[in-house]
Design brief:
heterotetramer, A: alpha/beta, 6-stranded parallel beta sheet, 13 helices, 8 strands, globular, B: 325 residues, 12 helices, binds thiamine diphosphate, binds magnesium ion
Chain lengths: 359, 325, 325, 359
């Protein structure tokens, strides 16, 4: 039987879990400032995340998803993007959007139940956090088509999880991107779980990267806890997209080190040992080692950095808590550019009733 | 006899029916080991095995389509969609296949299945977790739409839904999943799928509601009673096909109707109730029908959601408006 | 000045707007080389190039999602879904994203797009080609639903729809795509998206309709005129947000209302019209509101479809019923 | 970069377009009766199809899809199935369902606008024709799960086209079948077009078979105009499914020799030469050569067979035309097992109105 097509999927890692280089590093890894900048944002993501959980526990924000364990995947990818690129994030991508200029107080507003948070700073054309799984992949494809039609040298990037790869929307987005040769990167952070479902239950495919084969685009696997591997892969994929090379699927292998959200209790479905083991492979550990070895990063600097970041986060928390409550009128004012008469009448009714807080 | 919350009653009904009907299968996202994000299916996998209670890949159209396939081949799938906001990818399979398999094959194949989904606002959840679009499913010929609003009704209606030979969309008001408890005898007795529940007899005005709004309605009606306004309260429950008779009979006595639901007013199911009154009950109407519902806006995030859904005062004002005109 | 059918008027409107607005893009299944299965987009690819008029892979959720992505980035997508029966996979993107992008970002991103789809019965097509589920979209805050029922209105309403800064679901009654011709000046003038059309003034009863049913309604009303019944006829056209004022004003004069549409009656948009009358127009009603629609059954295949939709006689009987009570 | 996964797609053909064997043939090909039976059904499919088009032209049925060119793919597959297997066909699979016992008069009823046609004979548990593209793939997966749970040694088969492979439903069905190891065969008849869209426009994938890789199931390509290749692949895939080996995707390369449906005009979007060329590779041609060479099939037999089949078809056409019109009541009677009161009332109203035919 003649073979009519052949494919292979590669895996890339630069730093092992102890921060030791496994192969020659890309140039950016020698740039002390750039590495320090990314390392700083990884820590910021972690510090912010910790504070978010604590705000939820004290009832100051609602249910929130943790990015614990995703620091390298989020920062490495964001760092490879340009301001004019378009990001379509899932709900867990705090580090990536903060890098792109969103204020932490705005993210807190989103999780605090205030739509104004999504009217965020930074990349104003980026999509808001997306909750319906995988639907943002189609938005990224559409944005990519817009960029292509305008002839911009820019690309769109969709971020989603392992569970998202089971949705038809994920596949339709990839297939359209391939068929139309769109400048888009589909970035799957495989953190091993979709709430309680381990990735092995999502699909019989041995990698998620190979889903690219179904649509005729390149797909590859990288160590998602290795900042250098992530950024390297993200640079290649985004550059391919910007230069007319079309779409890429990247699977970043990582692990969700927290509960799915603050409404979840992961001990119900996964053993503590597994989480501890994964913790030892956490992105920040190996980056710390790397920073120490390459750039003589010290414990003093580490402590000072974290203190500084905590103060930064605290300022944003204060800004969030100090934000006056939205007015009920606001829920009517952005349904249409031109408010229909009947809706205006409903707004007048709503005005008459105080809005109780949650009991 | 167990003192249960609404969500516990759902669980008890599923357990009863699985124990008594081999063909009942429960699946969805996180319904197995995790027992459902609201614990509705907790313990079922241990009791009935991973063959009959299992987690699926993350794909709602697949969950619904798989159910259609199984139902036509002799099983009774009871899939869960994690939140109503994520039911839309499954809508095609419900309207294009589940609802019409019997009709398009003239009875050769049928589709007995119950698609369960928590719906409505009120749990400080992120975007898309507060949908109340029961009206979509109520406009699908061949589908029953059932909404329980108490532990006792959740148990009895879910049993009947699973036993029904046709597809049922079973929407659970998650805001009151744990709002109160009732004695729910685990006797396997179902409740009729074609009868609205008059939960309080009254003479002045008929207040028709369903879902979590029964809670505010109940409180409003209590306060109105102190003012001397005697409301008849109806939980429509089996919202489609709709029990017009009970609605018309009640309003023929009270002469007045107020409708309360969380869904956006325009195009909402309250319109169908009002339309039934306008065409089949007009001569009993002594006052305009008053609809109180979510506004014609996207359900807001947590901080404004209680300004969006009908609150006690808004319901009381609506009843006053109805009484005074 | 061109003498056009409804579908030709759609084509003329698309051509005009594409010529005058660089950001308008047309795509979908078979809309390019093939010019659309109903020829609605014929010639557009030649005129405006394959970049702006192109065929997509066969995936409706993708077509809608792609549109959302493009619309947020400055384009005005005008995608076509080949038949309304295949719009359901796209529904999630419409309600979860297109309808709320503006609201959830508080205006930072918007979603100006027009999703076109032919709808309704009457062309002897296979299963799933006769859907009339406009009520689904009319229950989505943030979405406009527009239904033209004449060449002139198709042209003017589509122009306004494409120019509108928010998402519009534009449903074309394919049964009357070629039923009659009108002079349609190609002057780029749009028609308002918030006004119903009174196509015949009358004094005895208001007949409110939309879509292909305008045809049978028109014939019925003509015969009724000979009997001395003077009907006011209203094409609701912009069915959501609904023009309540025009409805209420008309019925305040006639005192009677009959609603005619192809969709299943229960949960249909006629219910919303009747509800508006029951709550805001009750005191003008001299008779029960009568709804005539498709029955609460799956739209039948070709041999029975004309027994399903409201025919001339059924409409006349409804008007008589309304007049005599 | 370590390679973590490798794949290949094979193509199988036994008979070239002149009916010459390219490799050793499977056993069934030596079975004169079996081959004659399949050949007969291929012709029956063709004869029936021709008559259908003609009935549409004369207004005796509605819009209808032609199976011209699909004869080998349909009969070869159906012949490999067992009665207890479950078929989920698309709207174009006349040959396959007739083989499974559906009466031609019932198919005509379906296309004639009469639901009673789908209450068909033969495999009563098979799904009706499916119009919403790819949705039947999920039904086949569900049926397969039912068979698996019952422990039956049987499988489900979904039939769809090349265009269907772009739908999320297609992918979700394959992925679920892989993840749950379901006894199902996904059979894609790639006839090169989805109405006017050539398959190259559907996807950047060089084969449709490789879409199997995305979900971790075997996928292969066969010559869909080669009855022997089709049946051979179908036997392997169905047997794999029945014996616990899980799902398979088969792409059968063919060509749609007719307009998409009688409502279509293919000359708008494809050159006549292409169709003529494809016509020379038509399944019946090479089977005739094969039957001649292997089994001394003669032109007399050919003519006699076709006459006999035309008579058979005519009987069915008469039965169809003689079927009394359905009653309007029937549209109410199968909405629910127990008719709701309000629906019964509507039925009484409907009774009062004569049902006009189409004008
Ligand atoms: C369409 C849809 N279905 C279900 C959900 C509920 N839900 C929220 S997150 C989640 C799991 C997502 O897993 P994955 O894609 O791996 O992303 P992760 O949360 O692990 O980052 C589910 C099922 C949803 N938000 N959207
Ligand atoms: C969901 C859906 N979208 C659109 C259509 C309209 N339509 C009918 S057949 C067809 C093309 C199908 O092509 P393919 O899957 O290759 O099957 P083929 O007709 O070639 O056998 C389309 C777009 C449909 N029936 N269902
Ligand atoms: Mg995950
Ligand atoms: Mg095809």
């Amino acid at each position: 039987m003649p073979v009519v097509a052949q494919f292979e999927i590669t895996y890339t890692q630069f730093l092992d879990e102890h921060g030791k280089a496994q192969q020659e590093l890309p140039d950016f890894a020698a740039d002390a400032d750039e590495m320090a900048r990314m390392y700083r944002f990884m820590h910021l993501t972690r510090v912010f995340d910790r504070r978010c959980i604590n705000l939820q526990r004290t009832g100051q924000v609602g249910t929130i998803a943790s990015s614990n364990g995703h620091e390298a995947a989020q920062i490495g990818l964001a760092a490879a993007m340009r301001p004019e690129d378009v990001l379509a994030p899932s709900y867990r991508e705090h580090g990536a959007v903060i890098w792109r200029g969103v204020r932490m107080s705005q993210l807190l507003a989103v999780w605090g139940g205030d739509e104004r948070g999504h009217n965020w700073d930074g990349a104003r054309h980026d999509f808001p956090y997306c909750v319906p799984i995988a639907t943002q992949c189609l938005h990224a494809a559409g944005a990519a088509l817009a960029l292509k039609m305008r002839g911009d040298e820019a690309c769109a990037v969709a971020l989603c999880g392992d569970g998202a790869t089971s949705e038809g929307a994920f596949y339709e987005a990839l297939n359209a991107a391939g068929a139309m040769n769109l400048p888009v990167v589909f970035w799957v952070t495989n953190n091993r779980y979709a709430i309680s479902m381990p990735v092995e239950g999502q699909t019989a495919a041995s990698t998620l990267a190979q889903k690219a084969i179904a649509v005729g685009i390149p797909g590859e696997q990288v160590d998602g806890n290795d900042l250098i591997a992530v950024r390297n892969a993200a640079e290649i994929a985004t550059q391919r997209a910007r230069s007319g090379g079309g779409a890429t699927l990247v699977e970043a292998l990582s692990y969700r080190l927290a509960d799915h959200t603050t409404a979840d209790d992961a001990t119900r479905y996964r053993p503590d040992e597994e989480v501890e083991q994964a913790g030892r492979r956490a992105p920040l550990h190996r980056m710390k080692r790397f920073m120490e070895e390459r750039f003589g990063w010290s414990d003093e600097q580490e402590t000072a950095l974290i203190e500084k970041l905590e103060a930064e986060v605290e300022k944003e928390v204060e800004a969030y808590l100090a934000t006056p409550r939205p007015k009920i009128e606001e829920i009517f004012e952005h349904q249409f550019a031109n408010m229909p008469a009947a809706l205006g009448a409903q707004r007048e009714i709503a005005r008459k009733y105080p809005v109780p807080d949650h009991g | 006899m167990a003192n249960l919350t609404l969500v516990e009653a759902v669980n008890q009904a599923l357990a009863w029916e699985m124990a008594h009907d081999e063909s009942v299968v429960v699946f969805g996202e996180d319904v197995g080991v995790n027992g459902g994000v609201f614990r509705a299916t907790v313990g079922l996998q241990e009791k009935f095995g991973i063959e009959r209670v299992f987690d699926t890949p993350l794909a709602e159209a697949m969950i619904a389509g798989l159910s259609v396939g199984m139902a036509t081949q002799g099983f009774k799938p009871v899939p869960e969609v994690q939140f109503m906001g994520f039911i839309y990818p499954a809508l095609d399979q419900i309207i294009s296949h589940a609802s019409r398999m019997r009709n398009r094959t003239r009875g050769r194949l049928t589709c007995p299945m119950v698609l369960r989904a928590p719906f409505g606002t009120g749990i400080r959840a992120p975007e898309h977790h507060s949908e109340s679009t029961e009206a979509f499913f109520a406009h699908m010929p061949g589908v029953r739409v059932v909404i329980p609003s108490s532990p006792v009704r959740a148990y009895g209606l879910l049993l009947s839904a699973v036993r029904d030979p046709d597809p049922v969309v079973f929407l659970e008001p998650k805001r009151i999943y744990r709002a109160f408890r009732q004695e729910v005898p685990d006797n396997g007795e179902g409740l009729p799928l074609d009868k609205a529940f008059v939960t309080r007899p009254g003479t002045d005005v008929t207040v028709i509601t369903w879902g979590a709004s029964v809670l505010e309605t109940w409180n409003a009606v209590g306060e109105l009673a102190d003012e001397g306004i005697d409301c008849e309260v109806m939980d429509l429950a089996t919202v489609s096909p709709m029990d017009k008779e009970t609605i018309l009979e009640s309003v023929s006595r009270t002469g007045r109707a107020v409708i309360v639901h969380e869904a956006a007013i325009s195009g909402g199911l309250g319109g169908e109730v009002a339309a039934v009154l306008a065409s089949e009950g007009l001569y009993s109407l002594e006052a305009p029908v008053v609809r109180v519902g979510g506004y014609d806006a996207v359900p807001p995030l947590a901080r404004m959601e209680y300004g969006y859904i009908p609150g006690i005062q808004r319901i009381k004002d609506a009843v006053h408006e109805c009484m005074e005109s």
